[in-house]
Amino acid sequence: MIRRITCSLLLVGLHVLHLPAQEKRELFFADPTIYVADGKYYLTGTGGNSREAPGFFVLVSDDLKTWAPPAGARDSAYLILAKGDQAFGTEGFWAPQLLKAKDTYYLTYTANEQTVLAQSSALPGPYRQKEVAPIDGAEKNIDSYIFNDDDGKYYLYHVRFDDGNYLWVAEFDLEKGKIKPETLKKCFGQTEPWEATPAYESSPIMEGPTVIKLKGKYYLFYSANHFRNIDYAVGYAVADSPYGPWIKQKGSPILHRTIVGENGSGHGDLFEGLDGQLYYVYHVHFGQQQVSPRKTRIVPITMQWDPEAGLYTFSVNSEEIIEPVLADAGRGVSPPARKEGTYTNPVFEPILADPSVIRDPQSGLFYAYGTQDDWGDGQGSRLVPILQSANLVDWQVVGQAFSSKPAWKSSGGIWAPDANYVDGRYYLYYAYSTWGDPNPGVGVAVADKPIGPFADRGKLFTSEEVDVPNSIDPFFMEEAGEKHVFWGSFSDAPTQGTYGIRLADDGLSVPDLSRKVKIAAGDYEAVMIHKRDGYYYFFGSKGSCCEGANSQYHVLVARSAHLMGPYLDKEGRAITERGNGTLFIKGNELFVGPGHNARLIADDEGTDWFIYHGIDRSKGTVPTGASRRMLMLDRVIWRDGWPELADGTPSAKPQQAPVFQ
Q: CDD domains in the record, alphabetically (predicted)?
């Protein structure tokens, strides 16, 4: 039986870490390492909830179970090494290791697929470089681990790319931060079955080294397989010299899903606890169907002397796995560093485009869903990211809706999801399209929980089938017991526009495609309809959505006494004619491209809130080139029967937050 140790939670604000909200407030450091000093444990690793983190954060613990920022640290001090602060790297901050030599602390890490060495006079940092440069810029190398031998020499174990990822070692000059190239040697190749399983195809991968020395023997612990592979695992090899030759041990792997009970277990570090026990800290996959964000785990190591072989053997005590957690009051979310009862836009970044937000009637929590996007954090394209919040302000990533793309279309992305609670289940209507797609369409998926997994139920229609070019951006609405879907986007085609049509009673198909009704012209997209005081209010977006800092997206409104229209603006003009509509929100000097809003959400005081995406003018895109469409929030004011915002643009200063009990 695998027994995991968790603990109760204390109040600490950790908004700067952007860690996902889980019931137990688990830690989400991948490639973790723990340094022990002054009666405390110091933990750092890749990312927090992602590799998008701008450097490395540190947490401290007395017992390996509950973790918090260093005592007395201000928010900015949680970041022990910051991108751009006299340290090499602009992206891909991975796999750190802390060490001390004399009175100096060192942090070796990977950035831009190069190993780096920074230093500090204090353990919590900040860590900087005298000369901003990688250790060896001659070729790509990652996953550095510095080993100090008994004779005072240092060795850099790391990964180099050569038709795969292989471990190498070289003598290392700690003062200069450089290897001695003439000593560079490959450790070993991929030879064992467990090092290459078919669960995830990849080139050979040997990575995540840790080295210790016991009774004259060198023990090299390493991970094998791709980190996305469920069989990612840890084994070890033994040698009489820091250069090898290395003999892989029969007891490997010592860490594997069949041993610890979770997929993707690996890439960690050995350390001796305050109790004298040897531990291994490592990461595991987020869940059975999802890799990231990867969770942090700690397991005791059993070490036994084999007198016949003249060496130690290692195994893990899987009955005592520790699931480390953040100190928290149990709210389920991390309060940001802000004045109580206020917020400042954006409420989530880097991206949650085309948001849809629902309040789960079971838990009372809010869930936000966004268009498939690559956030530029090394995690690839998220198939409809899902966020969770208790208050519309503090959002945390909790997963993605799909594990794979729906099969009814050969190519494209999953755009503009629209989430709904329908007949006791969660329905996700979505667009399936790509830029310039001649035949995009609308589909639907269903789940039993708001975080999924969502099972695709196929298409409702394609553009050709319904005779509406660019059929994307679905919106579901149930009225008087009848289910409807609305959709549409830009085009100059005569049949272009925003349309509505009745769905079957189960909401999973359209009985008659010919019964569609046009409610807006072809210069609108991203329809949302809100009912209030006998009127149906149409919100639609116009302009360019996705040109980074040059985006011209904006939202206009109209209203009707009937769900299917006609919808008129304040001037009484029908929005089925191009150019009509009453401006609701546009960009300003700080934020551009506000649009594609979710449903209005009322707080416990009856105030309606407008949730949408917007782009920071100063940071228009992420490294992949995708527009940095952040999640935004603003209060709706109703005046003379029409919705307004305070000044018709995204708020940039602290605002009163929604009120939820």
A: GH43_ABN-like (cd18616), GH43_HoAraf43-like (cd08991)
Can you give the pLDDT at residue 586?
A: 97
Task: Please check whether the two domains, 4-326 and 342-656, share a CATH topology.
Answer: yes
Quick one: tokens of 561?
A: 């006494």
Residue 20: is the preceding peptide bond cis (ω within 30°)? Answer: no
For the chain, the 3-state helix, strand and coil shares in percent, each to the nearest 5, are 5, 45, 50
Q: How far apart are CA 127 and CA 77, in angstroms?
A: 11
Q: How many CB atoms lie within 10 A of CB 180?
A: 14
pLDDT at residue 78, as a whole number: 64
Flag residues of the chain having pLDDT under 50: 1-24, 49-51, 73-77, 328-338
Q: What is the DSSP string of 192-240?
A: SGGGS-TTS--S-BEEEEEEEEETTEEEEEEEES-TTSTT-EEEEEEES
- Tell me, what's the pLDDT at 517? 98
Q: What does the domain layout of the chain look like in residue ranges? A: 4-326, 342-656
CA distance 509 to 507: 6
Q: What is the pLDDT of residue 55?
A: 86
Strands, sheet with 40-46, edge to edge from the N-terminal-most edge strand: 30-37, 40-46, 59-61
CB count within 10 Å of CB 194 equals 15
| 595 within 8 A of 613, measured Cβ to Cβ | yes
E-assigned strand segments in 320-469: 321-322, 325-326, 342-343, 356-359, 366-369, 373-374, 381-382, 385-389, 396-400, 413-422, 425-433, 441-447, 455-462
Active site residues: 354, 525
Q: Which fold would CATH assign to domain 4-326?
A: Tachylectin-2; Chain A (2.115.10)
pLDDT for position 79: 78
Which bin fits 242, alpha (ψ -120 to 50), beta or left (φ > 0)?
Answer: alpha
Predicted confidence (pLDDT) per residue in 550-568, tens digit = 999 999 999 999 999 999 9
